[in-house]
Amino acid sequence: MKVVNALGRRKSAVARVYVSAGKGNITVNGREIDNYFQEDSLRYIVNQPFEVTGTAGQFDVKVNVDGGGIKGQAEAIRLGIARALCEVDREAYRSALKSAGFLTRDAREVERKKPGQPGARRRFQFSKR
User: Fold this and answer.
1) pLDDT, tens digit, for every residue of 111-122?
2) Which of 17, 30, 59, 115 is least surrounded by CB atoms within 10 angstroms?
3) What is the CATH number of domain 4-100?
4) C-alpha–C-alpha distance, residues 102 and 78, integer Å
5) What is the SS3 assignment for 12?
6) What pTM value is reported for the model?
7) Which string of b and e fits 85-104 if b means at least 16 CB within 10 Å?
8) CB 101, CB 75: distance < 8 Å
9) Which string of DSSP letters, residue by residue, matches 34-73?
10) What's the pLDDT tens digit per position in 15-51?
11) How many Å from the N-terminal Cα to the C-terminal Cα in the chain?
12) Structural domain boundaries of the chain?
């Protein structure tokens, strides 16, 4: 099997994912997944596409991720892995990944701060007198 690459995004995080046949090793920015993501919940998010498709331990994944926070990076990696698995075998994996919602890009972004206000929607306290 050749190396399949895909792109995943979430908030301001961008993950470039390279999937190849292997033993289930996941490398994020040159580090093992256990070293990069300390929390179990974040490692679980990254591994969700493999659990849904039943391919845990069949593919090696190399990821370059940049921007955003740690949770946004994990979800960007999840989207990238799901897209790469669809390229590997569309008929076998696409329906399971689609029904789990892993092929949908979460488009929610932080709203920009407006001038004359302390935040995006928040106003300074109004004083009548």
Assistant:
1) 999 999 999 999
2) 115
3) 3.30.230.10
4) 7
5) coil
6) 0.91
7) bbebeeeebbeebeeeebbe
8) no
9) HHH--SHHHHHHHHHHHHHHT-TTSEEEEEEEESS-HHHH
10) 999 999 999 999 999 999 999 999 999 999 999 999 9
11) 73
12) 4-100
